[in-house]
Write a structure and sequence with these properties.
By secondary structure, this protein is of the alpha+beta class. Helices cover 51% and strands 14% of the residues. The protein contains 6 helices and 12 strands. The chain has a 5-stranded antiparallel β-sheet with strand order 3-10-5-6-7, with no helix packed on it. A 3-stranded antiparallel β-sheet has the order 4-9-8, with no helix packed on it. A hairpin with a 4-residue loop joins strand 8 and strand 9. Helix 2 runs antiparallel to helix 3. It starts with 10 loop residues before the first helix and ends with a helix. The mean pLDDT is 82.
């Protein structure tokens, strides 16, 4: 059926204009993509793709910070390790002095001289432990282990310290004593339900004894006032107890929340109190001989903690490597979704440039149809 000529409604011009406008819009979009390098410049370009890029971008930033956390923690552990190495060297020298003083061929004056050096070295161990810090965080003074409440001096307990080392942790809770069997003492964590029983002999007059609950990672020093048959706090009248709270360092090594993305570690208590050498001396033959064993135990503690720090450092290094690998893969995925394919887009640009040019020419032709009708009417 013939369409004829209609002047009031130029259908051909309208169709041509619609095609021209569409080509013009596509051309502008192509120019924007090529100039920005991005396929998605706004959400309307690809709603699902834009949302995915946003989620992946957030994860990338989280992993990048997790990688920084791991590297900073490695720096902190290296600081602690360096200090522990120095303390190990000092303890080795203190042991040499103890062995020398433990010999019968050393007279009293010589032992006095040896003990002066020994006490100075002991003070230096304590100074290093108290002074070692990273970003104003004390590392090996015991603050990164268990915090235990004040000494129960009134009931014969001189000190309560965390004996955990090499990554061992004190379980938080309230600890009580029980002595239902002769020559034994039981320490109980009332919150966790954990307990340990050791062989125990009550200290005599003027005597001080140190006992280690190795499974619970707690060491207690008792004096003559401690009575296992009367486990009551003389001050409060309550059953003798103390509280412990586990402390340490938590490193966010992943982009997510939860234990799988966190690494918790503790650092040594390298003070002379934590190493259980606070009361040691070598000014007598007996003291020198007993000090050798105490120093051997202290050196073992330092060695265990150095090994533990090395193990944690290795894990953090692998964690940083894994985070970097994940970041690379996620950034590649983001690029695939968001970035423009220049070869393809250049081809699209050429196509729409031709369409815009031809559309512009056809608009002129469509608008000339009405002039053709007028010329027919004038004949």
């Amino acid at each position: 059926m013939a369409t004829g000529f209609r002047v009031s409604t130029n259908t051909s011009a309208m169709k041509t204009y619609r095609a021209f406008s569409d080509a013009q819009s596509k051309l502008e979009q192509s120019i924007e993509r090529l100039s920005s390098g991005l396929r998605i410049n706004k959400s309307s370009d690809d709603t699902e793709g834009a949302a995915t890029v946003t989620r992946l971008g957030n994860r990338v930033r989280g992993l990048q910070h997790a990688q920084k956390n791991s590297k900073r923690s490695i720096d902190m552990l290296q600081t602690a390790e360096s200090a522990l190495n120095d303390i190990h060297g000092i303890l080795a020298r203190m042991r040499e002095l103890s062995v020398q003083a433990a010999s019968d061929n050393v007279n009293t004056n010589d032992r006095y001289t040896l003990n002066m050096e020994y006490q100075q070295l002991k003070a230096e161990v304590n100074r290093i432990a108290q002074a070692t810090e990273y970003n104003e965080i004390k590392l090996i003074n015991g603050s990164q282990k268990a915090i235990i409440d004040a000494t129960k001096a009134g009931v014969g307990i001189d000190s309560i310290v965390s004996a955990g080392h090499g990554g061992q942790e004190v379980v938080s809770g309230t600890y009580t004593f029980e002595s239902s069997q002769p020559n034994s003492l039981k320490l109980i964590n009332q919150n966790a339900g954990e307990a340990e029983t050791i062989n125990f002999t009550q200290p005599g007059a003027g005597e001080i004894k140190t006992y280690q609950f190795s499974e619970l990672s707690i060491t207690l020093t008792f004096n003559e006032n401690f009575d296992p048959n009367n486990l009551v706090d003389s001050t409060s009248g309550n059953t003798l107890s103390f509280d412990a709270t586990t402390t340490g360092n938590t490193v966010q090594i992943g982009a997510d929340e939860g234990d799988d993305s966190e690494l918790f570690y503790t650092l040594a208590d390298a003070t002379i109190k934590g190493l259980l050498i606070e009361r040691t001396a070598i000014d007598t033959l007996t003291d020198a001989q007993s000090t050798i064993n105490a120093l051997d135990n202290a050196i073992d503690v330092i060695n265990d903690d150095r090994s533990y720090i090395g193990a944690v450092q290795n894990r953090l290094e692998f964690s940083a490597i894994n985070a970097a690998s994940s970041v690379e893969n996620l950034q590649a995925s983001i690029s695939t979704i968001r970035d423009v394919d220049y070869a393809l887009e250049a081809m699209e640009l050429a196509k729409y440039q031709i369409l815009v040019q031809s559309g512009s020419a056809m608009m002129v032709q469509a608008n000339q149809l009405s002039q053709t009708v007028l010329s027919l009417m004038q004949q």
